[in-house]
Amino acid sequence: MKIRLYDTTLRDGTQGEGMSLSLNDKILIARMLDDFGVHYIEGGWPGSNPKDAGFFNEVRKLKLKNAVVCAFGSTRRAGGKAKTDNQINALIEANTKAVTIFGKSWDMHVTDVIKTPLKENLEMIRDSVDYLKSKKKEVIYDAEHFFDGFNANPDYALESIKAAEEAGADNITLCDTNGGTTPERVAQIVEEVKKAVRVSLGIHCHNDMELAVANSLAAVRAGCDLIHGTVNGYGERCGNANLISIIPVLQFKMGYSCVKPENVRRLTEISHYVAEVCNMPINNNQPFTGRSAFAHKGGVHVNAVTKTAKSYEHITPDSVGNERRFLVSELSGKTNVLLKASELGIKLDKNSPETTRILDRIQDLENEGYQFEAAEASFELIIKKTLGKYRKFFDLQGFRVMDLATENGRSVSEAAVRLSVNGKEEHTAAQGDGPVNALDLALRKALIKFYPAIEKIHLVDFKVRVINGAEGTAAKVRVFITFQDEKETWSTVGVSTNIIEASWQALVEAIEYKLLKS
User: To pair with 3 at 20 to 30 A between CA atoms, which of 135, 198, 262, 503?
Assistant: First the structure.
């Protein structure tokens, strides 16, 4: 059975906290979704703001191959006519093949929110759908709050969607707008709806109980053939149903088809690309496409996966474009260390004393608060130091950091660094936006004449975590620093009760890692 995908990232997704897309961002995402094979792309509400109106003008120039673009809006206003309703006419002027409109299914919303007679609400639905069909539009009718409405007054909820069907709606999508329905109840209600109407059914779920994906899949089992959702589950409140999870479950676990099999391998690419355009972080633990989705840390798990991958993986990472990772920590066995070293191009013998020393060192450091899962450059340095493949590039005599108040009240940090390289002493200072930035600039300023490769690197991320918060301001902190050059990105870690000292440790290791590579 073919399941059609309806993506609402560009409309419902942008209602999530922290989400804001420019017109160009929306075009980039639309192009990617079309190339991936999504069937419908909801572009926005043309009557609500100039940006969405502009999107519909620009998206026509793309000549999409797979997706139908939908303009989104509501039924006409109470007491009026669809043909003279400004919002309805804005949908028509968007010049899309398909239009999605929502209407009220819950009698409480009709009487208490839009304060309209129940019969008038039915006429609003009927008139709006009928008028849009007269303009040769494919009409998807979103039955807003349908599941809550059905629970409160099933007869009226069914009457509302029958009005849309009688007016010619091509699809009726049942919405769990408040995200408060369970999968069992979703399935029961969809089955009841299937007895009452003959039109194609869709499902639109929100994630307020973390059941949006489960509810969407339950609806498909019960007879829905159109799934609404967003990339990475973006959306208002707790988000919408996550298409990135829904697609592989449909195709790998439930036997349905929604995109070409080879395109499922692009899921991680799609997930990360959209997150980048939206300037939103990817949840490491996101199923299928998160960085940790196929990461193995426990020694028993790692040992088993190296023998039979399916022992701890329900699908192969490459089937969704992800990759397997082996983590190193105090929970690791020698297998983790061997595999991680192998990834770095370093061969170790499981029974060698060096391997034992590396593992012991990692466990000791993690007991002090270090973590190497997200600091693989620091881990590589530990291996090289143990194997005698490390060399010291400079000797530190000392550093000092001060905060300076300028005349305009702005605070500027100044760092001074004294070090020697091959017996030649260097003493430099630099100002920066904060002590870590100042230290970074001063350190590189001191070293660049000796090691020109440093000029090509720059700091891209800086994170601080309190390890033992009960100690208050005397607590240890863990600092992660990420650097990047034209070829790669690497991260290091430092730990201390002094945040400047922890930052210095991570900074020095980041520079050393680059110099060893050079």
Answer: 135
| Residue in 93, 23, 90 with CA at minimum distance from that of residue 62 | 23
Model confidence at 328, pLDDT cuts 50, 70, 90, reads low
| Residue type present at position 447 | L
- The pLDDT confidence band at residue 406, using thresholds 50, 70 and 90, is low
By percentage, how much of the chain surpasses pLDDT 90? 55
pLDDT, mean over the chain? 89
pTM of the predicted model, to two decimals? 0.72
- Crossing angle of helices 499-517 and 376-386, in 10° steps, is 70
H, E, C per residue of 27-83: HHHHHHHHHHCCCEEEEECCCCCHHHHHHHHHHHHHCCCCCEEEEEEECCCCCCCHH
CA separation for the pair 509, 440 (Å, rounded) = 12
Judge contact between 41 and 69, C-beta under 8 A: yes
The answer to whether the CB of 39 falls within 8 A of the CB of 260 is no
Q: β-pairing, 477-484 with 458-466?
A: antiparallel
E runs forming strands in 284-383: 295-296, 325-326
What are the structural domains of the chain?
A: 4-259 (3.20.20.70)
Q: Which residue has the higher pLDDT, 517 or 257?
A: 257
Q: How far apart are CA 386 and CA 151, in angstroms?
A: 66
**C-beta pairs of 116-119 under 8 Å, 24+ apart in sequence:** 116/78, 118/156
Closest C-alpha among 51, 53, 58, 56 to residue 21 = 51
Could you give phi then psi for residue 142, rounded to 5 degrees? Answer: -90, 110
Q: Where are the alpha helices (DSSP H) in 223-309?
A: 243-248, 261-264, 267-278, 299-307
Q: How far apart are CA 518 and CA 375, in angstroms?
A: 19
pLDDT of residue 472: 64
372 close to 329: Cβ distance less than 8 angstroms: yes
* Res. 42 pLDDT band, cuts 50 70 90: very high
- Sheet containing 395-405, strands listed edge to edge, beginning at the edge strand earlier in sequence: 395-405, 411-421, 424-432
In three-state secondary structure terms, 160 is: helix
